[in-house]
Amino acid sequence: HRVDRRQRQMCIRDSISFHDPSLLIEDFSYRESSLGNYLGVTVWVNALNKAQLNNIYLALTGEPMVKVVL
Question: What is the mean pLDDT of residues 16-35?
Answer without folding.
Answer: 91
